[in-house]
Each structure stands twice: as structure tokens, then as C-alpha cells.
Specification:
The chain has 9 helices and 18 strands. It has about 375 residues and is of the alpha+beta class. The chain has 2 domains: about 170 residues, Aminotransferase class 4, branched-chain amino acid transferase, N-terminal domain (D-amino Acid Aminotransferase, Chain A, domain 1, 2-Layer Sandwich); about 170 residues, Alpha-Beta Barrel (D-amino Acid Aminotransferase, Chain A, domain 2), CATH 3.20.10.10. Bound molecules: pyridoxal-5'-phosphate.
Length: about 375
């Protein structure tokens, strides 16, 4: 007899009655782009205040029905995660640090007054989807299956309080190499808008943070830049994040600095992984505040040699030029730096099974 906990987490499998045709899928997998195509299945798990998490299902990918009064549509109780599954050279499938995503998902849930999902259930859900859609791995070099777990408040109630019903969903999207021929150095715009304030939701991965970043991002694009740089809300002086990515600064003396996790910065798993890899490379890694003025001075004097942003989607993105209200400056030669390339190569080699994993980061799916 299965225990109550086990029967609750026993996934029901409802295979898609009409999956995407082989020829169409092959075309997508040869040139997947990012975030526009989705696999045949999705995972859903329901939560209610009297039953807890229940009814885990791997079913056909498709629209979900929501009551128009569902709290997520009014008060934005929504959180998400982003992680990738890779097909290794030996044919096995693996996730990268899904335990870290599960832990962060729960940290976000606590901040948004949502129920936590047991880590094993989060990881099992992603594994179930990868197994169901194992024929959806891109065939292009640098490809992966991007997984998007998220949770929404579904209770039909307009009063302002945490909802009493939620849906956890995982969808998957085949992803190409974010930048086709290696990462070019990007040009960034220093925004006058802020992304996160002390005491706010900056450290939670919630859709609301992204909604607030769209106008500043559009402004950066309109000014001819690739990304938007956010400074801190209180002093508008300290560097925080680049769009949806964390930042690193490399100096001629062998130090590597990244802004500390003070509550307004999203604790990136790529960030954490790179800190560890950089220390192994002998760099002196510091989690310290760094100001825009100091950055400009250090870039001018040549003390700062490289800067890059990092996150799951694009992995590592070199920064070439910084522009803002007070003019612009160039980092190094304005192109991708050596250290940036080296750290990116090491991380992607571990993720893709090209280098042994001595950190316990690679989670094989059996
Ligand atoms: C997800 C995210 C990151 C990067 O986190 P990873 O775990 O490295 O993908 C950085 N900043 C923001 C705002 C994010 O939402």
C-alpha cells in the first residue's frame, strides 16, 4: 500500500493524443531560438489549503482554464524558475543543480506568501517532464531543453490576502545557443528606474519584478543598447543587476567582484557556480558593493579589465560598453575578455558533460 504522501505524489500520465509531427519537431529542433516553441507535455500539481499538494500529472501541453477572479490575475501572486536539461555526449540526460532551483523556488514562495513545494517533488516534476519529452532536445550545438517551473494563485477571490488555491506547472522549451556565434560583448544602458528596493521582492523570482523592468528595458533598446543596468534604489550609486542577470567585474590584479546578496539582488545559480569556479582558478573573489563611478574610473585607468553578466538563459554575457545620463565608457577593448571566455567554457563544459563534475552539480535523469 502506498502511503498517503506517496499516493499524492504518484504522477498520472496522460500522453498527448496528437503530439507535434516528427517533421515539424525536427525543424524546430534544428533551429529552436529561445522561448517560442514548447514541447508536447506539461506537468501540473494542484494545491489547496485543506488537501495540500495533490494530483500531480504529466499531461498534454495546452491552455489552462482560470476563473477571471483568480488572484494571480489581480494581485500577481506568481513565482517561477528557469533551468536547463542537457543531453550529454554519452546520451544520458541531466539537469544542472535542480536542488538549488527548488530551494530558491521555496524562498520565492515564502516571500510571495505562497505554499512551499517539497524539493523532491519539484525535482521529480522536472524529471518527469524531461522523460516525457526526451525527443525534444535540440540537435544544434549548444542546445538544451529549457524548463520553466512556475506557480500561480488560482483562488477566485478579490479580497487582498494570500490565496487558498495554487497551481504548480512545468513547461519545457527547446533552446538554441542564446548567441549564435559565441557571445558578443553587449552595450548597456544605466537606467534611472530601479528594479528592486530594500525590503521589496528583488531577491524573489517573481513575474512582478519583470513587469516593472519592461519599461526600463524598452528605454535601453530605444537608445540603441542591448541590456539595462539597474543601480540600487536608495542611493542610485551601487551596481545591482543587468536585466535578469547577475554581474561580475574582473580586475588586473586578479580579483573578481560581484555585488553582495543584500536582498535586492536575485541569488543566481550561475553566479554561485561561477564564484566557486573562479576561486578554483585562483582568483580572489569578493562579494562587495561596486559603484558606477568607481567602475568608470577603473575602466579608464585600466585596473578593471573585464565585466560580464550571467544567468541560465545566456550563461555568460560579456559587457563591452556602458552608457548613461553622464556619458559612456568602454570596458577593455570593448570585446569579449579572456577570463570571461574561460569561465564560461568551464561552466558550460560541466553542464554539458564535457568535463567531469567534481561539485555534485550534475543531476542525472534515469
Ligand atoms: C533568474 C535571474 C537571474 C539569474 O539566475 P540564474 O539562477 O543564474 O539563472 C538573475 N537575475 C534575475 C533578476 C533573475 O530573475
Amino acid at each position: 500500500m502506498a502511503t498517503l504522501a506517496e499516493s499524492r505524489t504518484q504522477f498520472t500520465h496522460l500522453p498527448h493524443p496528437a503530439p507535434v509531427a516528427d517533421s515539424v519537431r525536427a525543424e524546430i529542433l534544428a533551429n529552436p531560438g529561445f522561448g517560442a516553441c514548447f514541447t508536447d507535455h506539461m506537468v501540473t500539481i494542484e494545491w489547496s489549503d485543506n488537501a495540500g499538494w495533490h494530483s500531480p500529472t504529466v499531461g498534454p501541453y495546452g491552455p489552462i482554464t482560470l476563473d477571471p477572479a483568480a488572484s494571480v490575475l489581480h494581485y500577481a501572486q506568481e513565482i517561477f524558475e528557469g533551468l536547463k536539461a542537457y543531453r550529454h555526449p554519452d546520451g544520458t540526460l541531466a539537469l544542472f543543480r535542480p536542488d538549488a532551483n527548488a530551494a530558491r523556488f521555496n524562498a520565492s514562495a515564502r516571500r510571495l506568501a505562497m505554499p512551499e513545494l517539497p524539493s523532491e517533488l519539484f525535482i521529480t516534476a522536472t524529471e518527469e517532464l524531461v522523460r516525457a519529452d526526451a525527443n525534444w532536445f535540440p540537435t544544434v550545438e549548444g542546445g538544451s531543453l529549457y524548463l520553466r517551473p512556475f506557480m500561480i494563485a488560482t483562488e477566485a477571490f478579490l479580497g487582498v490576502r494570500p490565496a487558498k488555491a495554487y497551481k504548480f506547472i512545468v513547461i519545457a522549451s527547446p533552446a538554441g545557443n542564446y548567441f549564435k556565434s559565441g557571445a558578443p560583448a553587449v552595450s548597456i544602458w544605466v537606467s534611472d528606474y530601479t528594479r528592486a528596493a530594500p525590503g521589496g521582492t528583488g531577491a524573489a523570482k517573481c513575474g512582478g519584478n519583470y513587469a516593472a523592468s519592461l519599461v526600463p528595458t524598452a528605454e535601453a533598446f530605444a537608445k540603441g543598447h542591448d541590456q539595462v543596468l539597474f543601480l540600487d534604489a536608495a542611493e542610485h550609486n551601487w551596481i545591482e543587476e543587468l536585466g535578469g542577470m547577475n554581474l561580475f567585474f574582473a580586475f588586473a590584479d586578479g580579483t573578481l567582484t560581484t555585488p553582495p546578496l543584500t536582498g535586492t539582488i536575485l541569488p543566481g545559480i550561475t553566479r554561485d557556480s561561477l564564484i566557486q569556479l573562479a576561486r578554483e582558478e585562483g582568483l580572489d573573489v569578493r562579494e562587495e558593493r561596486y559603484s558606477l563611478d568607481q567602475w568608470r574610473d577603473d575602466a579608464g585607468s585600466g585596473q578593471l579589465i573585464e565585466a560580464f553578466a550571467c544567468g541560465t538563459a545566456a550563461v555568460v554575457t560579456p559587457i563591452g560598453k556602458v552608457a548613461g545620463r553622464d556619458g559612456e565608457f568602454t570596458i577593455g577593448s570593448g570585446g569579449p575578455g579572456q577570463l570571461t571566455g574561460k569561465l564560461k567554457a568551464r561552466l558550460t563544459a560541466i553542464q554539458r558533460g564535457g568535463e567531469p563534475d567534481s561539485h555534485g552539480w550534475v543531476h542525472h535523469i534515469t
